[in-house]
Design a protein that fits this description.
126 residues, mainly alpha, 0% strand
Length: 126
């Protein structure tokens, strides 16, 4: 275990930057799917709330990924995922694995962590 400790010690900033970048990158594609049916068709009809969510996912994900206006963008993304969880998933069953809401819940708390921590290294905010 000493080897692993030596390998990973002092890499917190880089690991956090990768978490921020990858989380934003993955979030972008939820927005492009809703707004542009890319990279796959969105399976449900869109209403104004879904258009707003898609815009937040695409723009907010891009801002978080590049680290620009990171705290407000991540906070808005977190709130969007909280709303998505409770409006779409949470009323169907208590357990996220049964209501298919685990991705929304995970994004909600990942973005909340990013909002609290800020942009970090490898960001335009820096």
């Amino acid at each position: 275990m000493k080897f692993l400790d030596n390998l990973l010690d002092g890499r917190e900033d880089q690991a956090y930057a990768l978490l921020r970048i990858v989380t934003g990158f993955l979030f972008i594609w939820h927005g492009t799917q809703k707004l542009f049916n890319f990279p796959a068709d969105f399976p449900y009809p869109l209403n104004p709330l879904m258009y707003a969510a898609g815009t937040i996912e695409m723009v907010g994900g891009a801002l978080v990924m590049i680290g620009l206006f990171t705290r407000p963008a991540a906070f808005i993304c977190s709130g969007t995922m909280a709303v998505a969880y409770w409006m779409v998933h949470g009323m169907n069953n208590f357990f996220p694995i049964l209501n298919s809401g685990e991705l929304s819940a995970f994004f909600c708390f990942a973005f909340l962590f990013i909002a609290v921590r800020g942009a970090g290294i490898w960001s335009l905010d820096k």
